[in-house]
Amino acid sequence: MADASIASGAPSRPKYGSMSRDRTWALRWSYFFLVLFAIFFLMPPIYMLITSLKTSAEISAATNPWWISNPTLQNYIDLLSQNQFLVFFRNSAIVSICVVILTMMISVIAAFALARMKFWGSATLATGVFLTYLIPETLLFIPLFKMFAWVNETLGIQLMNHWWTMIILYPTLTVPFATWIMIGYFASIPKELDEAALIDGATWMQTLTKIFIPVALPGIIAATIFTFTVSWAQFLYPLAFTTSTSELVLPVGIITTLIKGDVFNWGQIMTGALLGAAPPLIIYAFLMDYYIAGLTAGATKG
Amino acid sequence: MAQVTLRKVVKKYDEVLAVRGIDLDISDKEFIVLVGPSGCGKSTTLRMIAGLEEISGGDIAIGGHVVNDVPPKDRDIAMVFQNYALYPHMNVYENMSFGLKLKKTPKDVIDQRVKQAAQILDITELLDRKPKQLSGGQRQRVAMGRAIVRDPKVFLFDEPLSNLDAKLRVQMRTEIKKVHQKVRTTTVYVTHDQVEAMTLADRVVVMNGGLIEQVGSPNDLYHSPATKFVAGFIGSPAMNFIACQLEQAAGALRVRLNDTLSFPVPTERTARYSGHVGKANLMLGLRPEHIAETRPHVEPNQHDFDMVIDVVEPMGMETLVYFTVNGREVCGRVNPNAGATAAQSMKLRADLSNMHLIDDSTGKVL
């Protein structure tokens, strides 16, 4: 009503849309797209869950794929009672944890040196680190084959077909990106903070451990989550470099042992994939708050 | 004893000379303020004393020992930064004790020193708070506390009050002065604010273009500036500079501003200025407070003149009047009750006993 009386009193005055109406429309569009995306992205995992609860007979029967007539946990029981699956899981877990530790140890120190200890060529090196990340792994595994062969010939160490080789391999993917994240994070810490520490009598190492790591903890956690996810989900390198069943990690293990020729054991494949997705999910759930803080760091002055 | 000595100190960034060879002697317990416009090299000089910048030439000595190659932690200095640089993940107590802990000082000594410093700065009740829970002024106190607990030979302040609002800045200025009276440590303080420099310093060092223009007590700089730069930089509103000529008539000297306006030079200055009669590029320097409204009682060397006022700025306790001489704006300070009105003529009085004669070609005060 107030709108109308103002408009009639001053006809030349431009009409402004009401703020709350703007907001209502913005919210409607937000809901529309968010629901759309949620459905789109949640469909595959839900389909996996439904399939994992069906018997093989029901999966192959021409019934409604979104409906379970005879729910069963048989797939889970079968998979978890197989020693094989537990070996894959163990291999993946050890590899991922070791890769996370190794990556963070290298990239935190590298990022600190590149971001803070001004030395000749540090800027070029920092760019170089990022460029390494841009090289696709598909280009790298043939040269890596050659290198492994050379190591075997000259040093007598067989790197092929061992799960622990992945601990050396994955950091080639994770270290550049984690370093890049940490360089950005360290660069956002005011220069005066390390100068204050320097005057207070801290060595470079003490400045790193007592000031930078605690202050940059959200960034370190973001890099940790990233590293864990990459090494847990890594498929190409283990597929190319490991063959024996006892040396496989989870993603490759599920594919190679549950697909026999042209027989796809869908129920168990879906069960394995769901169980395999659990650890990153649990880690995300625990560290989500830190992760978001890490992603938005530097957006506002704290 | 902690004198700080700078000998021919130079700082070069690639090809740019930031500091061009400065000499400075700071005595023990002295409060020295480095002041100048941005880019004059004052912060660079402070950072060289701290050891945060390497020096490209010359020597810096603290307490008689040359420290050119000594790392900051071994120079026994403490620094307070413009943005406080408090460690955000530590509480106030931990922030203040960090340096002592690194030196492996016994716990009870740390505790005693932190509490003592907290008492001096009145932050005892803030000791277990995190920096983000503190206001700007409280953070600044903590930053000072962190410096005090280390009981260093030299305190270095790098524009510590620039991030505070005007009112708090004045308050903290007094606070810093009080602290220096309690904890008498040699202090080097950098600021671009000449009021801060004047109020805090035992001696002020005015820097410009990487060189020291003048070193002296606040009063020396104010009343006897050595160069036009110092004369214009110290004091607010700034000193008026008016192009003039020096004439000799009947044994007396006169400064002539234009055809209608000239003043006799005080007789005690005749000997000092007589060599500059007829010289080109001379300027008369007169501070705004030496141009006031006319009064019935005439003191020696005071001369009345009429001027049309362009702008009037009432400040409360005084009124600033602006008028134009030789195409340049000139400022005077008159009594609020003197009835200054814009666009009207007013009888003003110039006090020539505080005049300065400047050679504009060399920038030197004669």
Low-confidence stretches of chain B: none
The total of beta strands of chain A comes to 2
What percentage of the residues of chain B does DSSP assign to strands (E)?
Answer: 25-35%
The number of domains of chain A: 2
Please compute the radius of gyration of chain A using only Cα atoms.
Answer: 26 Å
Structural class of chain A: mainly alpha
- Considering the protein shown, what is the CATH homologous superfamily of the largest domain in chain A? MetI-like
Largest interface: A-B, 17 and 24 residues
Beta-strand share of residues of chain A: under 5%
CATH architecture of the largest domain in chain A: Orthogonal Bundle
Give the oligomeric state of the chains in this entry, treating copies of one chain as homo and distinct chains as hetero. heterodimer
Backbone shape of chain A: flat
N- and C-termini, Cα separation of chain B: 38 Å
Number of domains of chain B: 2
* Rg of chain B, Cα atoms, Å: 25 Å
CATH topology of the largest domain in chain B: Rossmann fold
N-C termini distance of chain A: 44 Å
Mean pLDDT of chain A: 84
Outline the fold blueprint:
The complex is a heterodimer of chains A (302) and B (366).
Chain A lengths: L1 H8 L9 H34 L3 H5 L13 H8 L1 H34 L5 H13 L2 H19 L9 H5 L1 H17 L3 H10 L3 H12 L1 H17 L2 H6 L8 H9 E2 L2 E2 L1 H30 L7
Antiparallel strand pairs in A: 1-2
Helix pairs in contact in A: 2-15, 4-15, 5-6, 5-9, 5-12, 5-14, 6-9, 9-12, 10-11, 12-15, 14-15
Chain B lengths: L3 E10 L2 E11 L4 E5 L6 H9 L6 E6 L2 E2 L10 E4 L11 H11 L4 H15 L14 H14 L4 E5 L7 H17 L3 E6 L2 H7 L2 E6 L2 E6 L1 H6 L4 H6 L6 E10 L2 E5 L5 E3 L5 H4 L8 E5 L4 E3 L8 E7 L2 E4 L4 E7 L2 E7 L10 E7 L4 E4 L4 E2 L1
Parallel strand pairs in B: 3-8, 3-9, 6-7, 7-8
Antiparallel strand pairs in B: 1-2, 1-4, 4-5, 9-10, 11-12, 11-14, 12-13, 14-21, 15-20, 16-20, 17-18, 18-19, 21-22
Helix pairs in contact in B: 2-3, 2-4, 3-4
